[in-house]
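Worked example (supplementary).
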Amino acid sequence: MGDPRGRVRGAARGLDRAAHAVRPGRQGRRDADGGAVNALETRLRARRDAGRKLLMPYVTGGITPDWTEYARAFAAAGADAIEIGVPFSDPTLDGVTIQEASHAALTRGATPRGVLAGLAGLADLDVPLVVSTYCNLVFRDGPWAFCAALREAGASGLIVPDLPVDEADEAADAAAGAGVDLALLASPATPAPRLAEISRRSRGFVYAVSLMGTTGTRSALGPAATALAGRITGLSDRPVLLGFGISTPGQAVEAARRADGVVVGAAIMRRVLAGARPDEIGAFLTAMREALDDPGA
Amino acid sequence: MGDPRGRVRGAARGLDRAAHAVRPGRQGRRDADGGAVNALETRLRARRDAGRKLLMPYVTGGITPDWTEYARAFAAAGADAIEIGVPFSDPTLDGVTIQEASHAALTRGATPRGVLAGLAGLADLDVPLVVSTYCNLVFRDGPWAFCAALREAGASGLIVPDLPVDEADEAADAAAGAGVDLALLASPATPAPRLAEISRRSRGFVYAVSLMGTTGTRSALGPAATALAGRITGLSDRPVLLGFGISTPGQAVEAARRADGVVVGAAIMRRVLAGARPDEIGAFLTAMREALDDPGA
Amino acid sequence: GRFGDHGGRYVPESLVEACREVEEAFREAWADPGFRGELATLLAVHAGRPTPLTPAWRLSAELGVTLLLKREDLAHTGSHKINNVLGQALLAARMGRTRLIAETGAGQHGVATATAAALLGLEATVFMGERDVERQALNVFRMRMLGAEVVPVRAGTRTLKDATSEAMRHWVGVAGSAHYCVGSVIGPSPYPYMVREFQRVIGDEARRQCAAALPSAVPDHVVACVGGGSNAAGTFAGFADTPARLWGVEAEGGAGAALGRPGVLHGFRSLFLQDDDGQIREAHSIAAGLDYPGVGPEHAHLRDLGRARYVTVDDGEVTAAAVRLARAEGIVPALESAHAVAWVIRAAGSGELPAGSTVLLTLSGRGDKDVATLMEVL
Amino acid sequence: GRFGDHGGRYVPESLVEACREVEEAFREAWADPGFRGELATLLAVHAGRPTPLTPAWRLSAELGVTLLLKREDLAHTGSHKINNVLGQALLAARMGRTRLIAETGAGQHGVATATAAALLGLEATVFMGERDVERQALNVFRMRMLGAEVVPVRAGTRTLKDATSEAMRHWVGVAGSAHYCVGSVIGPSPYPYMVREFQRVIGDEARRQCAAALPSAVPDHVVACVGGGSNAAGTFAGFADTPARLWGVEAEGGAGAALGRPGVLHGFRSLFLQDDDGQIREAHSIAAGLDYPGVGPEHAHLRDLGRARYVTVDDGEVTAAAVRLARAEGIVPALESAHAVAWVIRAAGSGELPAGSTVLLTLSGRGDKDVATLMEVL
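After joint prediction of all chains, the assembly is encoded as:
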């Protein structure tokens, strides 16, 4: 096989489905020296290397009064990391579902401070928390303050979709300083040398955008998606999560053939906006988890 | 007195009020050689010279099914000539009343041919009939044809308010050829040399426009009105009728101080449009006739 | 004041002196380099002259002719009307008049008059048929915003014809202090001549621009729409002494030159739509500016002479032509101007404009004002 | 791609390559005399450049200053927007793109984009907030008549900000075949720089025209309205190396430069109206074109440097200024442009513009589009 990292992919089947099977100390996310030991990337690498396909579900912070329950359901269903969106007024890379979710959360009064406070309430969970939001919220009080607040809230990763690698210097320094992994995004249009730079400078994982488009469910994954994942894994040992448009267990399995895992966002938020409770979302993710763990089933 | 024609104005008082008092043969209007003898001007001069103030009421031809009855009422009330308007679609020199009357007559189906046929039905009247209309109707089949039709219908005069003296050559020839008097208009703005030309070339009478404006009733006659009449009578021996805005016996008397008579149009048509029957119009004109005949009363 | 059998001054005696004063003042001003210079400056710095000559690249290729557009749509207020009103407003000021009177149909001439009045510190009174006041509420507001008084005319058909009549009636009473700013090459002498002279800047510019743009220097054909006919008269004036064939395109329902009969209205003798009795017929066109039952006397004369030919297009061809020009060249023409485009499209198809012909077309105005109309019919 | 601390390219990774291609193509084209010449020809024969410089005679006398108006309102489609879109459309064609994407608020940039697309045989897709689609039905129809597809945006506040976001989202998916034709000096690098270069024709022309019109050659003050700020950036570019004081006039409710705080939106770092959390605030202005919560990065930089000053006027001053200019000069300005007029009126009154000052004001567009708005408030 052409896998440059020489892992035994089949080993994933032997793992328990629940996240606590790997059980890293949650105090790791609070480590004052930058948290290399228990940071996001360490955790993801470990699981990946153990042959597990990674699953990172997404929830818009503040979408409901008890939105953190969704994060708990994610954890219970076997999430390897949890992405929490801090809603922004102008989510230019999001499709209609997450736009609507952001708008609804803001209308409910969601604020960055409030969402981070909610994260702190998830301190007992044994799953890394990754915050995603747009530049303007990161820069409002400066990336140093923002990353410090993330760390304080217990988040170990950060995704900023409108922050390409060329503009990322200060935020990357701030994130590193706070012990937060700033994950960069790569797209099917990214040329080879640039892809190498992104892979090198990304922390936690590389977020491979499956298609030229916005977040949202799609009926099928295009060939560009897995091709991109393959290109990145050919360049770097860092875990690669494929996102955008993954909404069914079948798509997740397909995506995970070349990538180390998947991000599932709009497919969840569409259900949340339709009124699905945390246990229903949990059931949806459990099915996806099972498919990832046993793609032949 | 400065009256260049040396008439005894007071003599008017001695005349009977009804038009037949002067009694010209109506066959005079049918004279084949151009009708100098019994034409409009001859009749008006004779009455003027006899000291009578002239009264020319106006009716829009075709305004009602029995519109000729208004002409008969005019005659009975002592009209010295009767002006019959042939309605035109775009009466640019008329104020709202005669515009409305023209529009109403056209809506009823009035045509030049129809109005002239009505005139022929007035052949028994002993009052000269003067047709007034706009250039376009005169020129439709050419002024020669139009004037011949006038003569055929028994009209002896013609007024064309949008035909100034500069443009009048052909129409004047045609009118003269048909034995119809083409009366020209003069206005307060007409300069002296031009006024002389108008006075010279006008036939039947000179139509002195009392004011710078359109036809229609006015609350008072301006000083320009009688001044213009004075200017014309200083230039020519031809009868001068003052028109535009004369609507009360008092205004008629005032106008006739310097002019030889008055034209009354809108004041009549306003009543006709309001539904006044011929006898009511006759009563209105009788009062005006009496005032003209006895201005001191 | 004659153009062959046409023209003249068929006005109430009360207006003869006023017309004579306008004529005298115009002849004197037009011979005065100071006046000409002042007008040229206003046209340049305020109205945006010269307007460009735009090669209609894509439409030319489609039609197989070389089509050049004289862009009066880019003149201030959106049409060629401004050329005339700036001239008349300057003349009115020179005559000591303090107010302009104007008639308007769709409101283009009214807006132009209000504009010129504002610029020169004159008052403006604009007569507009009540029906047009309702249909063209935006232009009414523009005029009022420019400080003009807009007087709705309730007589007759309550459209342009009646507004013109009412403006003339009003002028009778105020001729000493107000100038009647006629909007086209119509009206009593000297208006048809004077307005033509004020509009000849279109033709003079186009002549020079064609000389620079065409190997033949002069186009084979010169085309313009005709309502009263001022943009056509101004355009033709620049090509009168050339071999160019001149084409006036009228609305089928307002084709004074093509279908009218001799008559007199609004102070001039020309060709008018009228019934057998001589009653003026109401014109009908999708383009409000062509909704006039007559045509300027010079056009009647050019038709008599055969120097210009007058053709008609129908409303359907006009809207199709407007859309086609918009899509091909990125120019939404006024529906008036679209008449000229429609005829060029038809004539290029029929061979009346042979392949390879060079065609100058005056685009008299922009179509913004017509968008509501087009929304209804498209 | 930086203007001091501002500018940059804060876009999704999927758009980085597209932006880089635009930048490369623009730099190459801008250095190519062939491209420059082709654009100059289009601007001259199609868009009506140069636009005049109009002395505002009467208003100058009233205010005690010499006020010169740069007349972008006379450019084809009614505003300066055409300068930029012709440049970008020509660039897009050169890059082999077959479609233009644009965002629009009131519809002016959308109409200009549709126009340029038609002229160059490109397709056009225009994103417009659903609320603006309803408010600006006539401009929507104009765009469609020009062949463009208009896509109503139902997200967020359903206005310009959201239309811009949606255009960016759409571009992500089609960047290989479509060019995003940004309408102002905003967006990711190279847009703020490129649009400024395409608009500098305003300032370059005005510089030459002022040199001919003013004894001092250069005006003491240069004033322009600022929404995103493209007409101001283009104007200022012509006077950057002169002692002229530069003034950007913003709407009180959309004053990114005067009242905004540093942030990132729509791909660039600049000054934005936002709350303490960093949520972008909705802008409010009677002028739809100023209804944007940010300002181009170059303006943020000029403000930081003190080279230009940014001031605000309120809606009441704006409508009063529009009426005053209409009545004094016969020019109905776009409400955007009326902001600049309003500030000059205020500043001449307060002495901030001393008596005798010479002032160049860019009149960015005509007010026809705003008549309905003015009818409601006047």
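Two points are worth noting when inspecting this output. Chains D and B do not touch (no CB pair under 8 Å). The longest helix of chain D spans residues 191-213.
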